[in-house]
Design goal:
Number of strands of chain B: 0
Number of domains of chain B: 1
Oligomer: heterodimer
Strand order of the largest sheet of chain A: 1-4
CATH architecture of chain B: Orthogonal Bundle
Strand content of chain B: under 5%
Order of helices and strands of chain B: HHHHHHHHHHHHHHHHHH
């Protein structure tokens, strides 16, 4: 039971972080379909940092440096989306898809190159981080508290505050609703959209490293992040682009994702004799159902996905 | 010459070539970072693909292998293209492809059907998956990209579950169709002799080309194609004109699903590959289809060339020096090319702006010099 709660919370943390990233980008008017790729690159940044840290470093430093690595990689990678979609007015769907493919391909190539350089016989795309992973976890009477759970709560509170209580957040949301009107009162739409995409890069990177640290202690980068970026987008839509609801939606999705990790701990679930593939499918099926019921009365930012053109009304 | 440059098709071609060159260039730079010694050779090896063999018989055989995988890729890219023309981004093509593969393999191995029936069943399976996307889009306003991705994973896990019943006991791969049920193998009609007896070369390739022609006619010459495109341009205007816009959305996605599902069968019914029931990621074929569709300038005929090119470099990835690089280099280049394709409209816009400027600057004076400059610029890039 404890295990189920633990996994639910950690997967919900991933989903909340990434969905909030998507939330910033969409409120500024850019649909960030590249979150999946950003997560992979963020995870790569964090994993590379962990790999290169000297043994015996204080836990706090390990955590901070790993986060820094992930955030930096996510941030840099999201500039690819920003340049293309904001300045060059490229199609946001194509660029997002390209970033997803590029993320996995680039991470695989880089990790394989590093592994092969160390040991010519090693052609795997796996990074192992058993030791540094321990820095992220505090064991409280059998419950593995992960620092990411705290980080997520902080990020969530900040997101609520920034979006609804600061000038910056309200201006950003104006750019997603009616950029021409926002521009007419002196707000730079390009700057706000850049800010939105960069923040989504930071949070996507954080979510990525959180995801690969969630259940396992090594990661095969060929697998990417198994659609979690898109699940996060579903969480965001279900949460109606509002931070509080996003967190609740993430808990629901996190629970169904956790089931595939822990169902064998429940005797009555095992006795139902459902193949494990069904549990793997669960989060995706649930998200389809949820989307079917919530998309109709969608409160999406009105101008999302449309490149800003000053000369349009 | 200026007229030629203003031609939309020529511009698309130039833009696509530019995307390829930039993709290769950035790929080359990445290789330089990994290992500067063999970077150029690696790019050459990827581009040579089957030409890496010195005997012409072996070359032909490996060209055949590339073509075997080009046919399903072409189907996937047609699926993406068709939906994109109607304003829908069919990222679910990968899942529809998987469903088609699953249906084709299962019908062939478990029920012993012959190939036309297997193919048909695969088409139906692809349609069924895309029908869900269509219904959700038309009636529940669900973004087709997100529902498509979700269905990709659902299709993958379902396929693994279903095909586990027809897999070999000692390996995670399904049985060979060629030995279990030869009549489900796509007939070769002597085509394999053209490729030094490569038994995987089948009617899949001409079949795919025929579908290209059908799609081209459907989109450009029929009433239904016109209606679908009108719905894509402006859903509300189409509705106002009395077109059934919901039906059109569903119909489009179903055609897309049918194309992708057929693609899945066209690969697996040659027995070139067997499905691995422990697969933990969706096959790249569908996503490469997206690359091919945009690289082909969103024209059915263009996708024939772009599909071949994408498959050419993907297969070529196998020939890079494994002690220095991995074969995923070609995935990297393919994804860079898609990223560049995002700029196609920008490139065309810039080119048109440049041409218009030249027009305004020198009215009625010898139009040759600016033309040459523009052409050279295009030429250099290409």
């Amino acid at each position: 039971m404890m295990l189920a709660v633990q996994y639910t919370l950690i997967f919900a943390s991933v989903l909340t972080l990434v969905a909030l990233g998507g939330c910033y980008a969409e409120h500024s008017g850019v649909i960030n379909l590249g979150l999946e790729g950003i997560m992979v690159i963020g995870a790569l940044g964090g994993a590379l940092t962990m790999m290169n840290l000297p043994v015996g470093m204080p836990a706090v430093l390990i955590v901070l440096l790993t986060l820094l690595g992930a955030v930096l990689f996510g941030l840099l990678y999201s500039t690819l989306l920003a340049v293309a979609c904001i300045n060059l007015k490229a199609d946001q769907t194509i660029v997002g898809t390209a970033l997803n493919m590029l993320g996995t391909a680039a991470a695989t190539v880089i990790v394989k190159a590093i592994n092969t350089a160390k040991n010519p016989d090693d052609v795997s795309s796996t990074i192992n981080y058993v030791e540094p992973k321990k820095a992220f976890i505090v064991n409280i009477k059998g419950f593995e508290f992960n620092w990411f759970m705290l980080i997520t709560i902080v990020v969530l509170l900040i997101a609520w505050f920034v979006l609804y209580k600061t000038r910056f957040g309200l201006r950003m949301m104006a750019c997603g609703e009616h950029p021409q009107a926002a521009n007419s009162v002196g707000i730079s739409v390009f700057k706000m959209r850049w800010a939105g995409v960069l923040i989504s890069g930071v949070l996507g990177g954080l979510g990525g490293i959180c995801y690969i640290l969630a259940g396992v202690s090594e990661w095969k980068f060929e697998n990417g992040v198994a659609g979690f970026g898109f699940l996060s987008l579903a969480v965001m839509i279900f949460g109606q682009w509002k931070p509080g609801r996003i967190a609740l939606a993430a808990l629901l999705f996190g629970f169904f994702r956790a089931l595939s990790n822990v169902y064998f701990g429940f005797d009555w679930l095992v006795s139902l004799n459902i193949p494990s593939a069904v549990y793997n499918m669960m989060p995706y099926i649930i998200s389809l159902l949820v989307l079917a019921f919530t998309s109709k009365k969608s409160r999406a930012p009105k101008a999302e996905g449309i490149p800003y053109d000053k000369s349009m009304r | 010459m200026k007229k030629l440059l203003k031609n939309n098709g020529v511009q698309s071609l130039l833009a696509s070539l530019l995307c390829i060159v930039l993709g290769l260039l950035i790929g080359y730079i990445v290789l330089l970072f990994i290992n500067p010694n063999g970077a150029f050779q690696a790019i050459v090896d990827i581009m040579k693909n089957f030409m890496n063999y010195s005997k012409s018989a072996l070359q032909l055989k490996n060209l055949g292998n590339t073509l075997v995988k080009t046919a399903p890729l072409l189907m996937c890219s047609l699926s993406v293209l068709f939906c994109y023309k109607v304003g829908l981004f069919n990222i679910g093509v990968a899942g529809q492809y998987v469903a088609g593969a699953c249906a084709g393999i299962y019908a062939a191995l478990a029920w012993g059907w012959s190939w036309p029936l297997c193919l048909l069943f695969a088409v139906v399976a692809g349609m069924a998956i895309s029908l869900i996307v269509g219904l959700l889009k038309a009636y529940c306003n669900v973004n087709e990209v997100i529902s498509g991705i979700m269905l990709n994973w659902i299709a993958l896990y379902t396929t693994n579950m279903i095909l586990a019943k027809v897999k070999e006991t000692t390996s995670p791969y399904t049985f060979h169709i060629a030995t279990e049920n030869p009549k489900a193998i796509l007939p070769s009609l002597g085509l394999s002799k053209l490729f030094s007896g490569n038994s995987y070369v089948s009617i899949a390739i001409p079949l795919a080309i025929v579908v290209v022609v059908i799609v081209k006619i459907l989109l450009d010459k029929t009433k239904i194609g016109y209606e679908l495109k009108a719905t894509g341009f402006n859903k509300n205007a189409a509705k106002y004109c009395g077109m059934a816009e919901k039906r059109n959305i569903i119909l489009t996605l179903m055609i897309g699903g049918a194309l992708a599902g057929m693609g899945g069968a066209l690969l697996y019914l040659t027995d070139y590959e067997q499905w691995q029931v422990t697969a933990s990621s969706v096959p790249g074929m569908g996503f490469n289809g997206i690359a091919a569709a945009f690289l082909g300038g969103l024209d059915p005929v263009g996708t024939i060339f772009s599909s071949y090119f994408i498959q050419h470099i993907t297969s070529g990835g196998a020939y890079v020096d494994k002690t220095m690089y991995c074969s995923q280099i070609s995935d990297l280049i393919a994804s860079l090319i898609i990223y560049m394709c995002g700029f196609v409209f920008f490139i065309k816009y810039a080119l048109n702006l440049y041409l218009a400027k030249k027009d305004n600057a020198k009215p009625k004076q010898e139009p040759a010099p600016p033309d040459k400059a523009a052409e050279e610029k295009g030429g250099e890039r290409a």
